[in-house]
Amino acid sequence: MLTAAGRRIRYDVRPGDVRRTPLLLCCGIGAGFEVLQPVVDELDRTVIRFDVPGVGGSQTGLLPDGIPRLAWMVDRMLSQLGYDEVDVLGLSWGGALAQQLAVQHRRRVRRLVLVSTGTGVLMVPGRPSTLLRMLTPRRFGDPEYAAGIAGAIYGGSARKHAGEIRAVFENQVRAGSLRGYLYQLAAGACWTSLPFLGLIRQPTLVLTGDDDPIIPVVNGRILARLIPHAELHIYRGGHVELVTEAPALVPVITRFLSN
Is 13 exposed, middle or buried (0-12, 13-18, 19+ CB in 10 A)? Predict the structure, then answer.
């Protein structure tokens, strides 16, 4: 635990090859950092993970934290941990935080990886039935429920391997608070990256699935078109393929970060 921007933050650093730039992982909405363990297992570099306020073991604030304030908090956290420069990967909601970091603290971010994410409130929305199910954080605290709705929400391999989704959420130390989840929803609902995508100067890899009910593939195309130094990788699968099919997707990320 450490205190950054007035919040008690739970974090984890998995040491790796010191010759490579450390990688900061930003999780999706409501998810503790354990959810990305399959990704960590496929990487050989130092990996930094953390719980957003209100998620997992991090403190919930009295008031919501907007995306810019959260980016400032992460920047302060990295300073305390002694990392001057990192690569950043953002999954889903975490992709918004990653984009904000890249613009707001550009000297901190060397390369950017955006997975299953979009431009915030001003993006092409997913299926209404899927978005309605996301209004509750129940899937994070109830692995059986998560497995039951996995195919409908996440698409891709989750349609056939719901048990893997159950295992992912069972590995969390604790589920986030309802207030923390609602604060994350509010932060996303008040944010968009569309006005500043052209200011993201870091080399960027955009990964998007062709069967994602939450973030349709067109959002990845928009990101790749408007970010000046971006490349697009469309994979066969859904919203959480990075977690359920990590051995297939992490090498794509590793090659990009090694260039």
Answer: middle
DSSP-assigned states of every residue in 195-216 = GGGGG--S-EEEEEETT-SSS-
pLDDT digit string (tens) for 144-195?
777 787 788 889 888 877 777 777 777 766 666 788 889 999 999 999 999 9
Q: What residues form DSSP beta bridges with 4?
A: 7
Rounded Cα–Cα distance for residues 83 and 143 (Å): 35
Q: Would you mind telling me the total number of residues written for the chain in this entry? A: 259
Who's near 188: CB < 8 A, 6+ residues apart?
Answer: 29, 67, 93, 96, 120, 121
C-alpha pair distances (Å), 243 with each of 112, 163, 203, 230:
18, 13, 23, 22
User: By C-alpha distance, which of 68, 10, 13, 66 is closest to 43?
Assistant: 13
For residue 60, CA distances in Å to 52, 97, 101 come to: 9, 17, 21
Q: Active-site residue numbers?
A: 92
Answer yes or no: are the C-beta atoms of 195 and 119 closer than 8 Å: no
The secondary structure of residue 175, as a DSSP letter, is: P
Q: Global pTM?
A: 0.94
